[in-house]
Amino acid sequence: MPLELLGKLAVILLVFGSPMVLMPLLVFLERKVCAFIQDRIGPNRVGLLGPDGLDEALLGKPVLGRRLLGGFLQPMADGIKLLFKEDIIPENAKPVPYVLAPVFAMVPPLLVFAVIPFAPPVKLFGTEVPIQVADPGIGVLFVLAVLALSPFGTIMGGWGSGSKYPLLGCLRAVAQVVSYGVCMGLAMLAVLMTAGTLRVSDIVAAQSGGVGDWFIWSQPVAFLLFLVCAFAENNRLPFDMPECEPELVGGYHTEYSSMKFAMFFLGEYIAMIAASAVTATLFLGGWSFPGIKPDGSLLMTVLSFAVFWVKVSALLFLYLWVRWTLPRFRFDQIMRLGWAVMIPAGLVNLAVTAVIVTAR
Amino acid sequence: MERHEDQTPTRESASEAGWIAVSPVALLAETVKALAHTFRRLVRRGSFTVQYPEESLPPRKGYRGEHYLKRDAKGRVKCVACFMCAAACPARCITIEAGAAPPEWKDREKYPVRFEIDLLRCIYCGMCEEACPVDAIALSGTFPQVASSRAEKIYDRDRLLAIGDKLGDNISIAP
User: Fold this and answer.
1) What residues of chain A have any CB closer than 8 angstroms to a CB in chain B?
2) What distances in angstroms separate CA A230 from CA A181, A183, A239, A267, A275, one per listed residue?
3) B125 in helix, strand or coil?
4) Class of domain B67-167
5) pLDDT of chain A along its 360 residues, tens only?
């Protein structure tokens, strides 16, 4: 029994630790990708490599890969900077929602990972340890419920700040999340009908036969809809209405400083990772890949773990890539896209899926 | 040209609708095209960034930066302490203390014992350069450097001469 408990604790550490490790990497990559797309260099000063770094001091010339990796400690420097900034609570703020909001921005996206299988169960010391914190029969519903919780951080922050720009940002967030949450549910529903289950591990198992079994091929429209909705739910460009710097100063987190702001920032990136993990699980076969057999051996488990994160990283790159490609939509355009295009498309897709599933 | 009255309402209603006049499929196709474009930029090497302290762009012709004092053919300070520059200076940032020139300097009566420019007051207008009758003072293309105290921004005679020496622009027509 203590062994089982230990195994569970180790899995929890792994499941919640890996997005935390990935997050600063993602922040760094975001800045680099953005810089390269805009023909700039990006952060290249903080880190061991760079114009005044170790490589030039020791070797006298830039090392290979410095263009990409120079300045890789920038997220740490940013974090330390934020840590030492003054933590201000505005006079007009309502303290309870104001202080709670960053927590709500960060915790729900982390909770999503609880039901995501990172790898098939591994056999260790005679017991089978699933690399998944919990595998409830309603796993997908849990994901949907928790993802619907995350805008509460935005809403509480916007309303609790007692200032007009955050309030406008939070109003937009509510409208956007309501519109796109519906469509996200519709897209998920189509997948659930194809898989015939709500259990996340079963959905992955249903796709583990090979690349052809991935639901992205049988549900391409749902994949597209889900992806767009995930962008919208995460307030990523082109749907970053709640932040919208040119119009709303900084949107819902205008009045936040220091670590509270950092938590909003981290929450945004963790939400991105969570959404990518859900997308990879529902549409890209989760940890499965041809040639990797879930036989419980340590090697296969590590390989599938790696495969899972490669898929997630590919989706994350898509996030960054899209952000630095598309301009922001206007608010009414977002609403129209949501209600007049996405939801009808989701409904039609659902109807077609229903007919095919019943006929099968 | 005759105005087509019937076209105006159509345009207005289109902008009222606020909706892009393309189908979602076309929108998606354009998005993919845009993504391809940005990906090409992403993998392209090279950038327009100038890594400033290490690199810098050459100053534009006519850029007015730090001042310097020139020397004559014998290596002496060219300035004759006539106070023309100090008089012309709208910011009153030039302080000159004249001294009698040594007897062996046959070409002038005075020379600057002290010649200070307060760069914190200076507006880099270049009037001193215009006013100088002997072409002794000029503004270089060097950006004014950062200083850690106010005193550092007050350039004295030797420092101004040193800037000129570094630029190699000290030998010109003797006065």
Assistant:
1) 33, 35-41, 51, 67, 224, 321-322, 324-326, 330, 332-333, 336-337, 341, 345
2) 9, 10, 10, 14, 6
3) coil
4) alpha beta
5) 677 788 788 888 888 888 888 888 888 888 888 888 888 888 887 777 766 667 677 776 666 666 677 778 888 888 888 888 888 888 888 888 888 888 888 888 888 888 888 887 777 777 777 777 778 888 888 888 888 787 788 888 888 888 888 888 888 888 888 888 888 888 888 888 888 888 888 888 888 777 777 888 888 888 999 998 888 888 777 887 767 666 777 777 788 888 888 888 888 888 889 989 999 888 888 787 777 777 777 788 888 888 888 999 999 999 888 888 888 888 878 888 888 888 988 999 999 988 988 887
Cα-to-chain-centroid distance, residue A299: 27
In chain B, where are the structural domains located? 67-167
Within a domain: A343? yes
**Chain A nearest CA to B10, separation (Å):** 19
Does residue A43 contact residue A74 with C-beta atoms inside 8 Å?
Answer: yes
Number of domains in chain A: 1
Nearest by CB to residue A324, choosing from B38, B47, B48, is B38
Residue A10 included in any domain: no
Q: Which of A115, A123, A284 is nearest to A191 (CA)?
A: A284
Domain extent for A124 = 85-359
Nearest chain B CA: its distance from A164 CA (Å): 25
Best of A31, A325, A334 to disrupt the B interface (most B CBs within 10 Å) is A325
